[in-house]
Each structure stands twice: as C-alpha cells, then as structure tokens.
C-alpha cells in the first residue's frame, strides 16, 4: 500500500527507555536503567513537524515513563503548536506542577495502567513501593482538573483483582477502561523471539511508532520490524517506502489484508477492539473475562 493510499494519522513517540517502575510484563523492556536514547530535542521537534506536514492528527508520548524525560513539556508544547492532539501514556507517579500546567494549557489527554484496587497487589506488579497511592491520587487530580483520562486494567497474575480495579477507576470517574493480556514482547516474552503472529495485524495502517533511537516501527509492539530511522531519512520517505512495503507484506502474509483499526482501546484513542483477537489475547475486556491467568502488556508503559 502506498503512502497516498495509507495516510499517516497517528504516531507513538517513545521519548525514553527510562522508567521508575520495573514490571515483568513490560513490552518495551524499560526500567530504571533505561536511557533517553539518541534522539535530541531538535530531532524530536523536527519529527513532530514532519508528522504534522504529513497530515497526522494525534501523537501519544510514551516510554519508558515519558514524564521522566526532561524535555517532555517542550515537546508537548511543540506538538500542540503544530496542530496535533496530544495524549501522554504515563504511570502517573511522577507529575510535577509545571507539567500539570502544560497538560492543561495544551489540552493534553492522559492514559494510565492500573493493576488493582489494593496498594499491595498493584505495587507488586510495578515493583515500586507507593506507586498505587501516587497513581490513584493523580488519576483523581487529573479528573479534578478536567483532564481527560483513560485507564487500562492489565491482568498480570492469577486471581488478580482486575474487576475491582476497573470498578475503582470507574468510582473515581474514569469513563473509559480497557484491558488486554500477554503478547510475547519485551520482558513478557521470557526470552522468546517476537513473532508477527502475536501482533494484531493492524500495524502500519495509518499509524507508526518512533523510538528513542530514531527507529520507526509499524507499532509499539512491532519494534522488531523496523521500517526506517528518522535520523537517517525524512519520515515522508520512510512512510510508504520500500522497507515499509516489505514489512507490510510480511504482516499481511500472516494476518491477511484489510485491517482498518488498532486494538485495544488503550493504544489509540480513536479506535476500538477488533475481532477475533490474536491467539495470546483471547479477550480484551478484563471486566468480562473469566479466569484470567495470563499477563498483559498492552497499555503498560512501564
């Protein structure tokens, strides 16, 4: 599919590999030992300008934990000024006052992962003591400030209180709560090689992800399928280029043609769940799933 036939509307911008949490299920393999990568602030602003020029509508800043990136406010302001809608996917444990101000000023939307209604269980997943208290408090603060926020309840352990977690978010006033299970990427793979079969199949359709090294991927989970690097070529050349066509053909060979949306709703604000789910997912909504024993990766930036 050519760039003319497949417009680029959305991009994940993974500005850092650094995270203050260390979840076993992290698809990005981020941790407190992560770095901000090779992309400079100027590289990111240039890339944001290229996205806007290509007609993109939305960007989502992710990590690692994006609020640990020292220039996040600058990038949010730049993206907003370029006419892009901005969402930040954060664990909400590290929000400074000036960042709240930027969220408000730029109309930022937030998304977060939530593991339990109990602090003990949530903190066991994040391996960060006090993370539940801080995340929950900042969910409430965001809503009190009128900042839109989506929650992703991810099932990590057998018997986890996922239903109660979803209910707790709803009680706080979160209107959109989604969920997902394991995909064998990052630390969740337990050393297994990533496979196209475990992607949803909608990769590179109107969306891409850009990592802290400048690599461009068809989605955040498909980081083993690099389609180019913005430090070496303009995004417009990468999008619809030869390498992207090769990767798209490989994905289509496994999943078939015609995918038109991404899944689950934690990833893209504008899309909903697909069916059927990929083999390792099976069900996208933890509020309805029974006996969830698998871990989850989507919607978990840490």
Short description:
The chain is an alpha/beta fold and 302 residues long.
Give me the secondary-structure topology.
Layout (H helix, E strand, L loop, with lengths): L9 E5 L26 H13 L4 E5 L9 H10 L3 E5 L7 H9 L3 E6 L4 H8 L4 H14 L4 E6 L7 H11 L3 E5 L26 E4 L4 E3 L10 E2 L5 H4 L3 H14 L47
Parallel strand pairs: 1-2, 1-7, 2-3, 3-4, 4-5, 5-6
Antiparallel strand pairs: 7-8, 8-9
Question: What is the number of independent domains?
Answer: 1
Number of strands: 9
> What's the rounded overall pLDDT mean?
83
The helix content, as a percent range, equals 25-40%
Alpha-carbon distance between the termini? 33 Å
Strand content: 5-15%
* CATH homologous superfamily label: Aldolase class I
Task: Kindly describe this structure.
By secondary structure, the protein is an alpha/beta fold. It has a single domain (10-255), classed as TIM Barrel, CATH 3.20.20.70. It has helices at residues 41-53, 72-81, 97-105, 119-126, 131-144, 162-172, 235-238, 242-255, and strands at residues 10-14, 58-62, 85-89, 109-114, 149-154, 176-180, 207-210, 215-217, 228-229. A 9-stranded mixed β-sheet has the order 6-5-4-3-2-1-7-8-9, with helices on one face. Strand 5, helix 6 (162-172) and strand 6 form a beta-alpha-beta unit. It is globular, with a radius of gyration of 18 Å. It comes from Streptomyces alboflavus.
């Amino acid at each position: 599919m050519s760039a003319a036939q497949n417009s680029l509307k959305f991009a994940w911008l993974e500005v850092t590999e650094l995270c203050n949490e260390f979840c076993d299920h992290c698809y990005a393999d981020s941790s407190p030992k992560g770095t901000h990568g090779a992309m400079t602030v100027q590289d990111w602003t240039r890339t944001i300008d290229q996205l806007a020029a290509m007609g993109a509508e939305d960007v989502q800043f992710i990590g690692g934990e994006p609020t640990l990136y020292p220039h996040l406010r600058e990038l949010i302001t730049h993206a907003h000024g370029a006419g892009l809608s901005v969402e930040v996917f954060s664990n909400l444990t590290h929000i400074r006052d000036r960042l709240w101000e930027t969220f408000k000023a730029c109309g930022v939307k937030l998304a977060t992962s939530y593991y339990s209604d109990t602090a003990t269980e949530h903190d066991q997943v994040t391996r960060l003591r006090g993370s539940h208290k801080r995340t929950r408090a900042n969910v409430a603060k965001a809503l009190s400030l009128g900042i839109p926020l989506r929650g992703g309840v991810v099932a990590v352990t057998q018997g986890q209180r996922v239903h109660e977690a979803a209910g707790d978010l709803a009680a706080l006033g979160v209107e959109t709560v989604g969920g997902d299970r394991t995909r064998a990427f990052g630390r969740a793979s337990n050393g297994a090689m990533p496979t196209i079969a475990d992607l949803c199949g909608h990769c590179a359709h109107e969306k891409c992800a850009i990592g802290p090294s400048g690599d461009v991927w068809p989605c955040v989970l498909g980081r083993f399928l690099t389609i180019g690097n913005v430090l070496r070529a303009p995004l417009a050349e990468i999008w619809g280029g030869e390498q992207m066509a090769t990767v798209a053909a490989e994905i289509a060979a496994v999943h078939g043609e015609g995918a038109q949306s991404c899944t689950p709703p934690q990833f893209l604000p504008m899309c909903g769940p697909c069916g059927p789910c990929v083999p390792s997912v099976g069900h996208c909504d933890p509020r309805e799933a029974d006996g969830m024993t698998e871990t989850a990766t989507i919607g978990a930036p840490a």
